[in-house]
Specification:
globular, Serine Threonine Protein Phosphatase 5, Tetratricopeptide repeat, 6-stranded mixed β-sheet, 3 domains
């Protein structure tokens, strides 16, 4: 069995939420809209707005603060810097101070700031660009723990608007903060309206962080128990319960995949089949694809071929679903994994069905061409890939180029070169 590929299939349906430590997910007090903003225990204040601002520990009544989290490796964070400069200049005289915090060490941040701004023609450095606001670094991550992790925020850049009373008024991407910031500054902000919307999203983020921590420790059973508990406690919230049901199915699928990876393959496959029966699109198709991958890498070619045949004859399967399934088989073979002839033939049938459903889709024809070529029929592969290139349509330039390159490769092979 190819364990690396098995691990890849597990990752397909794993909740990618294990970003916080177990202690963080379970123990930190939740920070939400209306909470008093924690003090800033920042280690290094790198810039101070050209002398306009002093380091902040506690927030001064009547002032407004933007606490933003960034990193030197984060492209969107760097792209947001000019906007932060504009916002700071616009609101500086209205009592607004931006504090941008990285959790990297000081030399890393200083090294980044010494670099010229990408695309700048005047030699401006990032230190010069960001000098309008306070840029800091906090390697012990105390502030990130108090803000990002406590609020269930996993991605950067993220900013927190701290209002005139020291309460958190808004949390989100810095490129979207202008309207809320203006409203907070002018005392027109409707905190409660935003809070009701934000907390629904936050509740799910915090739950996923807790589940992620349990998954890191291998406690799938505890994660499922947590989901069940949340479902019971929120039975009147249909939307939230539906999301919980989806998470529960993903967790069960992961449990089944772990059994297949170990020495309980038959039990795992039975459990995975049960999950597929309960799941709805698009999760259903995603897990079906994973199931076929698992069958192939575990040497169960007869079951994999049967699953593909069932997909090819299913009444409600869309062209996109069929195409993705067929391409999955090709990718496995392309990685060097042995694919039995009956599996390859079944995958071709799936791809043929997809082309029948959308005969003018270049990308779908391209999938069939690849599988036909893998089956040893060079002439038909050239015929199909020629049609795929003619129907390239609005495919991204990179995809279109790959399709043309494959056709050239086939023709070169035909010519004996």
């Amino acid at each position: 069995m190819t364990s690396a590929l098995i691990r890849h299939t597990i990752a397909v349906v794993t909740l990618l939420t294990a970003t916080a430590s177990p202690a963080t997910a379970d123990e930190v007090k939740v920070l939400t809209i209306g909470s008093q903003a924690p003090a800033l225990n920042v280690e290094h204040w790198v810039s101070n707005g050209n002398g306009a601002f002093k380091p902040v520990t506690t927030f001064k009544d009547g002032n407004v603060y933007v606490v933003e989290f960034w990193a030197t490796w984060c492209g969107p964070c760097i792209a947001s810097m000019p906007h932060l400069v504009e916002v700071q200049k616009k609101f500086a005289e209205k009592g607004v101070q931006i504090v941008s915090i990285s959790d990297e060490d000081l030399p890393t941040v200083q090294g980044f700031l010494a670099k010229p701004v990408r695309g700048a023609t005047d030699g401006q450095t990032y230190a010069q660009l960001t000098s309008a606001y306070c840029l800091t670094t906090d390697p012990d991550r105390s502030v990130a723990s108090d803000y990002m992790e406590a609020a269930g925020q996993n991605g950067i850049p993220t900013c927190f608007i701290v209002g005139k009373s020291g309460a958190v008024e808004w949390i989100g991407h810095p490129m979207q903060m202008d309207g809320p910031l203006e409203a907070v500054v002018t005392d027109k902000w409707d905190r409660e309206a935003f809070k009701s919307t934000f907390q629904k999203q936050q509740r799910m983020s915090l739950l996923q962080a807790r589940i992620g921590s349990l998954m890191q420790r291998g406690n799938i059973a505890d994660a499922l128990a947590l989901v069940d508990s949340e479902r019971e406690a929120n039975a009147d919230d249909a939307e939230y319960v539906a999301m919980l049901d989806d998470i529960g199915l993903k967790l069960r699928a992961n449990s089944a995949l772990q059994k297949i990876q170990g020495d309980m393959a038959e039990e795992g496959l039975a459990e995975l089949d049960a999950v597929i029966k309960e799941a709805k699109s698009p999760l259903k198709e995603q897990i079906e694809s994973v199931r076929i991958q698992v069958l192939l890498v575990s040497g169960k070619s007869d079951l994999a071929a049967a699953a593909l045949t069932a997909a090819a004859t299913a009444e409600n399967a869309s062209a996109e679903q069929l195409n993705n399934l067929a391409w999955t088989v090709y990718q496995i073979k392309d990685r060097g994994q042995d694919v039995a002839p009956e599996v390859l033939a079944a995958a071709v049938a799936v791809a043929e069905r997809a082309v029948d459903a959308e005969p003018e889709s270049g990308s779908i024809i391209d999938t069939l061409a690849h599988l036909v070529y893998a089956s040893g029929n060079l002439d038909r592969a050239i015929e199909l890939q020629t049609a795929a290139v003619k129907n390239v349509g609005n495919a991204p330039p990179q995809v279109a180029a790959q399709m043309r390159e494959f056709l050239a490769q086939l023709k070169k092979e035909k010519a004996g070169n």
